[in-house]
Task: structure prediction
Amino acid sequence: MKIPKASWLSLAAFALLGFQTQVSAQEHEGVTYNGQVGRIINDNCVVCHREGGIGPMQFENYEQVRPWAPLIQYKVASREMPPYAYDHGIGIQELQGDWRLKEEEIDAIIAWVNQGAPLGDPDIEVAPAELADPDEWNFFSQFGSPDLVIPSVSMDIPANGNDLWSNHYVPTGVTSERCIKAVQVKPRGDAKAVVHHANSSVETLNEEGEYERYGQLTEYAMGKWGEIVPDGVCRTIPAGSMVRWSIHMFPGGVGATAEGQMIEDNVVEIGLWLHPEEYAEEAKYKQDLRNYRISQQSDLVIPPNGYQMTQGFHSFDHPVRVDSFQPHGHLRMNAASLEIFYPETGRTEEISQISNWSATWHHSHIYEPDVAPLVPAGAVLVLKQWYDNTANNPNNPDPDMWVVGGSRTGDEMTHAWLAITHLDDEGYEQLAAERKEKEERSLAGSD
Ligand code: HEC
Result:
């Protein structure tokens, strides 16, 4: 992620000259760093833009922020920063771990830069960002340290070269069936720069004494934060199980590393926060995470300088709740959406859309449990993904190439990860009734 200084500066100059955004002047007169903007930046940017963070520059104080003001304005106005491309105004907006700024925060930053990015009253001190150690687990402040950390086997890989894969087994160390509260996958140290994705599934011994796939544990791809399982349901990790790692590394892809070097001791860790043992018996419904193929990946062909779109359908023979949505693609995929089609009414409901998708940031969009879609048996999940192989796609390394479905970074993929709670009629009715009641209460103003 080392980019020559000159190119940052030319970008900044470009933003300054080519970009002026108008906002309601009256509402945003006299916006200053010490007054408003410093707090917005401390709360939303410094977590990555600090010494040792993953952002390319630091925004810890006015002196550090000021030279970047025009570029900050550009990235904030275009909603490229903070990096969370989830469309406003389409589908469900209540998400857990949502990094998007509020409209008024964006307007304040735009106005501040248009007014010359002033410091403001030097006697006001901006509250510093409340931050954990950058190598700390993302859920540390919420749940403390993980109950269980499962590391992959260490690997040395060259800093430049082709895609590499590693598949191997590691025991989970779980001795009685447990339910997962939260999970994060974390490449340790330099591995951050080379791990493209890491899938982990769980296997258990079958009657013949052989390990057999039990289910997906989690999925990590660059930029992913983690997953939280909603209360009351169980994503199981069985006793005596093994983790089967499938790690895909792309050296040189985003590496902050020099030609000819080796990146040593690459380890990916799974942090698991578990519910107490008795929870496994109390939780009535199971949740699982699965990869839903949108169309046959082998059919995917994207012409040079052209576009492609895939669409796929899935329905269940029992009611479910969709807890999270994480589309997956590579360098040409630029948008994805999830809809539900109700055959009985012919109505289609928009659930989520991500129009400026980028492979640098793989987010599992976790719906707030109160609004997570309840899907009756037979309703159809419609998954769509779009690909742009033209020069207009800023992530496209070569618009003159034919791109086909496959697992190398330069190939494309077409699937989405969905966390699904499997309900029965009773569970579905109960959740639907609870929501209705809540809605009525809040309409009556007593909530
Ligand atoms: C989760 C980490 C993270 C957060 C939060 C974050 N950034 Fe970034 N930012 C990055 C990374 C990584 C890059 C470089 C790669 C990229 O552009 O995606 C970057 C790049 C930038 C750039 C330079 C972009 C360019 O193209 O030259 C600016 C400006 C920026 N961020 C501003 C912000 C602002 C302002 C905020 C808060 C409102 C913010 N960022 C929040 C990680 C983050």
Notes: Residues 193 and 405 are 24 Å apart (CA to CA). The chain has a mean pLDDT of 86.
